[in-house]
Amino acid sequence: MNNKGLIIGLSMVLSLSCGCMVGPDYVPYEMETPAKWSAVQQYLKDTEPNFVGWWKQFNDPVLVKLVERAMMSNLDLKTAQSRIRQARAALWFSEGGLWPSADATASQSRRRASTGAKTELYSAGLDAAWELDIFGGQRRDIEASQALVQSAEKDLRDLWVTLTAEIALNYISLRGFQQEIVILNQNLATQQKTAELTRKRFTGGFVGALDVANAEVQVANTSAQLPLLELSVQQTIHNLSILLGTNPSALTEELSPVADIPFAPVQIAAGIPSDLLRRRPDIRSVEAQIHAATALIGVAEADLFPRFALTGSIGFQSQKADALFNWNNRVWSAGPSASWNIFDAGRTRAGIEAQKAIQEQTLLAYQQTVLRALQEAEDAMIALAKEQEHRDALQKSVEASRRSVDLATQLYTEGQTDFLNVLTAQRSLYSSEDALVNSNRTVSTNLVALYKALGGGWEDQYPD
């Protein structure tokens, strides 16, 4: 074949390799979602959702700083970033398969014939090969690798959503435990005063020893709660330290000072359920995995077809080292090659069926991920609404309990009621105030859970 024929033939091969791809093309799966949220609507605004930096809405500079520091030092984030680099390297490796490869070789060999004569042979050259992607197996492999890069990038976003939520949840819990300690100390001080009053009345002969014992028991029971709350404070600080990629006690001095539970407006724009399909990174990650699994079906099907390659070599051979690169000692070869696995006892088709099953499993995982995302969002919305109602009721309970304590203490001092009413009123007050602190904390944590369920927080850090 002359040079012109070779060029024409090569052009035809390249044209075929660019236009033919076996296997199914990826088509995004359309999953039906509800038209609107079924949860209570009074805490949802009918505006365009915007979750960028949602933690800043709590107006707590310490919380904002913790999130910013976690962005730089969290070890899970660094691991996810490393996985992205790994996926990109795999993509570059796949893309390299579309291009020719070349190897430089050099050798020296010594040979002895049966006659006893000895000869030496020196050689050096360049071998090149180019496997032509006629049926698109390599291009499908590149397509799968590109989808896996996208999946790794979405996993990083999902980890960021989870991380910011975990920091906020732990921080709110920390402030909640600290406020519980404040409430405990306030009630403990009141109970100690009551116990002292009871001891004085016992000395004066107005009450019996049982009242003194009951007052001291109540003080002891309340005091016994303090170590447990202090333990919770320290463990929560340790959790936050680990989330920031530091040793467990690194934030102890910084976070030990008592602060209020952070609050944010509980009415947010949640959008519509179908927004989750584009906003939640975990859903988009599984969607990219479906794409990869679909492309890998084509990689498997390409093994049903023959493989074509262009090979060539050029070099020098000589029996004398100093004459190796003499132009007259040059050798070369070039030509096409083909191979076709015409019988493998069904292994290729089994591999295709296995890959189809993997794609089906990935699609089912996508459907399950969407359903769970919808459930998480609905659960978070209803939890936020009902906890608001719970908190309003507890606020009234606290106000009533305070009045009850004041009245019972006054009547007891005047000798118009027994000590049991005082104990009951004080226990009720402590219980109500502690429950209110917990409810305040739960309202804020439920709001964080809603932001997480809606997939917010990554937009500013990892934009599309």
Tally of discrete structural domains? 1
Mind describing the biggest β-sheet?
Answer: 4 strands, antiparallel
**Distance between the amino and carboxyl termini:** 52 Å
Q: How many H/I helices?
A: 10
Looking at the structure, what is the overall shape? elongated
Radius of gyration from the alpha-carbon trace, in angstroms: 37 Å
* CATH fold-level assignment: Outer membrane efflux proteins (OEP)
Description:
There is one protein chain. The protein has one domain: Outer membrane efflux proteins (OEP), CATH 1.20.1600.10. The chain is 62% helix and 11% strand. The chain is built from ten helices and four strands, in the order H-H-H-E-E-H-H-H-H-H-E-E-H-H. It is elongated and about 130 Å long.
Task: Please name the defining characteristics of this protein.
disordered N terminus; alpha+beta; 464 residues; Outer membrane efflux proteins (OEP); four-stranded antiparallel beta sheet; single chain; 10 helices
